[in-house]
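Students often ask why we bother encoding 3D structure as a string. The short answer is that it lets us treat folding as translation between two languages. Here is a chain of 99 residues written in the first language.
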Amino acid sequence: MDCSIVRVNADSTVQLVGRVLSVVATRIRYCFVVAQSSQSGEARLAEVGELELRANQATDFGHTLLRLQPDQFYDAHLVVCWDEGEVECRLAPATEWLH
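And here it is in the second language, the structure alphabet:
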């Protein structure tokens, strides 16, 4: 099982997408959390769900669109669980600025 968080930059936004790939067909549970912080505060977006995966096919979920502001940064964390284990991945330490 492999997971990643894909970052897609556009003009004044960034889209974060959770992605998982399994070599065997299986059912997963996931938790995808994005925390966005700035000088004025913090916002957290969370998505929890279940998916059926096909073997050797990447599956995307948890599409999150963030507006870019000069004083903002984010942290994205994905945890994927299935019968045989758990895998997690993270994108961007809190010090990586959006712009």
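Translate back mentally: The chain has a mean pLDDT of 87. Keep this in mind for the problem set.
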